[in-house]
Design goal:
The chain is an alpha/beta fold. The protein folds into 3 domains: 4-246, Rossmann fold (3-Layer(aba) Sandwich), CATH 3.40.50.980; 258-391 and 401-433, 3-Layer(aba) Sandwich (Rossmann fold), CATH 3.40.50; 443-540, ANL, C-terminal domain (GMP Synthetase, Chain A, domain 3), CATH 3.30.300.30. The strands form 5 sheets. It has a 15-stranded mixed β-sheet that branches. A 5-stranded parallel β-sheet has the order 4-3-5-6-7. It is globular.
Length: 542
């Protein structure tokens, strides 16, 4: 049985003194994290939170456990919050800390949050909506130096842990206990993806398939203790997936000091100081400023051997720049989603060179035809749907219709079809085309926003860009590019189109350009297409 709380405790038994989390000047051993998360679990149980109904008999979009909101920046408290909730048989869920009042209220109501663990910086926003979320009876505030006083009725995180008991885990922990990951909502309202813990462990939180807790313990004990820094917010699945993957081989999770914004110097300095072995980022949005910083200052990164990226485009030109600066590293481009787990990978090295959009499919992953009737063969040249069978989520919380749509049963086989369009090349490699939800239908042709973004980024003057569709009398919808140029660069629309046309056909080229000082992205680094459409509409007077 694979339960995330049991796995962490089993590893802690064999490496109790090894560092588990390093954050600023605080170093937590595996035994200390075990003690703190047991105390948090005891606190949650003391407030009557836990499992109210076992999984058997529940439908895929239902939950029988209490849900705990993690309204936090990165730090030891975020990961402790996840583990502590699991140990109480509660379900933690991620909160986007950039949400405004209306969005936050929607999320807490949709998720049926019974408790909220939050940084003091978010106390004023939480105070505005607390009367509208009466089901969230337990508030636990984490001191962060922001100066905001403890909310009335809330508990101080450290004081509450100190008063709690590090009781042993309950005997009824189950592989059926839930893991919930809320999607970012950059193209629509957020949805809570429900996984059994055993399924998410094998699908996204373990690089291998250990058959037992004993084998996990042996692997962790025999390993030297990999040290990894997941740079994106832990509220983004890719970041805490990396953290749990490192834990599951007995590793140490490093957290940079500056957690409210991307600080490249802080990230490189943390890796240098802590002798980090791996760094996780989210595509170009993280890579470009990190590369610029490497050119500006020298760091001893001799311990670093892997940079992983997921969740957004990492262009080949930027990969090559990073390899030129750090020639001994490997770059792992990982493809997956909240609804599928890990699906495909691509590795770039100094010897192989860099490319973008081509991946090696993982086991139980495939491309289904447009009508979902068959699995496509390599070289078919058909555009289909990236899909997965086998281990996958149960569904979307409280949404039967979207559950049945995203996880259809075809020919007796249940698939996860999150919405990524792709095709299989002749050599069997996957060519990712883009997310269907941001596809632009222009003059009857389907144009993938990510494909156009990638083509534009080949121009050296483009720092960042996002592409969306805007209304057009002639085309129905026209390709519109929101572009942030590199500082000091002046580039014409014609030049951008000429560069893009070297990589995509003419009908896919932007009809309209909107130049901005800064592209707004989600904290995870993913494109915010709702923001892009709003900016484009305002610029065009729509």
């Amino acid at each position: 049985m694979m339960n995330l709380a049991l796995i962490h405790e089993a590893i802690a038994e064999v490496i109790p003194e090894r560092e588990c989390i390093v954050f600023r000047d605080r170093r937590f051993s595996w035994s200390e994290v075990t003690d703190r998360t047991r105390r948090l679990a005891d606190l949650l149980r003391a407030h009557d939170l836990g499992c109210r109904r076992e999984r058997a008999g529940l439908r895929g979009w239902e939950s029988g456990q209490d849900h705990v909101a993690l309204y936090l920046h990165n730090g030891n408290e975020y990961l402790e919050g996840m583990l502590g909730a699991f140990k109480a048989r509660c379900v933690p869920f991620n909160v986007n800390y950039r949400y405004v009042e209306e969005e936050l209220l929607y999320l807490f109501e949709n998720a049926d949050a019974r408790a909220v663990i939050y940084h003091a910086a978010f106390a004023p926003m939480l105070e505005k909506i607390r009367d509208q979320i009466p089901q969230a009876r337990l508030l636990i505030q984490v001191e962060d130096g922001s100066g905001h006083a403890l909310l009335e009725g809330a508990l101080d995180y450290e004081k509450a842990l100190g008063a709690a008991t590090p009781a042993p885990l309950p005997e009824d922990l189950s592989a059926d206990d839930l893991y919930i990951l809320y999607t970012g909502g950059t193209t629509g309202m957020p949805k809570g993806v429900l996984w059994r813990q055993e399924e998410i462990f094998y699908s996204a939180l373990s690089s291998k398939l250990p058959p037992s807790l004993a084998s996990i313990q042996e692997r962790a004990k025999s390993g030297s203790g990999i040290r990894s820094l997941p740079a994106p917010p832990f509220m983004h699945g890719a970041a805490h997936w990396v953290a749990f993957n490192m834990w599951h081989v007995g590793g140490t999770v490093l957290v940079q000091s500056e957690v409210e914004r991307l600080n490249p110097d802080d990230i490189w300095s943390t890796l240098e100081r802590e002798k980090g072995n791996t760094l996780a980022i989210v595509g170009d949005a993280f890579a470009r400023p990190l590369i610029d910083q490497l050119r500006a200052k020298h760091y001893d990164l001799s311990s670093l051997f892997m940079v992983t990226s997921g969740g957004a485009i990492f262009t080949a030109s930027l990969k090559q720049e990073l390899l030129d600066l750090l020639p001994d590293i490997r770059i792992l481009d990982a493809l997956g989603s909240s609804e599928s787990g890990a699906q495909a990978t691509h590795v770039s090295t100094r010897e192989t060179g860099a490319s973008t959009g081509n991946f090696d499919l993982g086991e139980n992953n495939m491309v289904l035809s447009e009508d979902l009737s068959r699995i496509l063969e390599p070289g078919s040249d058909e555009r289909g749907w990236l899909a997965r069978e086998g281990r996958m989520p149960l569904g979307y919380y409280k949404d039967e219709a979207k559950t049945l749509q995203t996880f259809p049963t075809v020919g007796g086989v249940r698939y996860s079809v999150p919405g990524d369009r792709a095709r299989l090349e002749q050599d069997g490699r996957l060519k990712l085309l883009g997310r269907d939800s941001v596809t632009i239908n222009s003059g009857g042709e389907k144009i993938f926003a990510e494909e156009v973004e990638l083509a534009l980024k080949h121009h050296a003057g483009v720092y960042d860009c996002v592409v969306c569709g805007t209304p057009s009398e002639r085309w129905g919808s026209q390709v519109t590019a929101i572009v942030q140029l590199r500082e000091g660069e002046e580039v014409s629309e014609e030049e951008l189109c000429a560069t893009a046309n070297e990589h995509i056909t003419r009908y896919k080229l932007p009809k309209v350009f909107v130049f901005v000082e800064k592209i707004v992205r989600a904290p995870s680094g993913k494109a915010d297409y709702r923001w892009a459409r709003q900016i484009a509409s305002e610029a065009l007077g729509l």
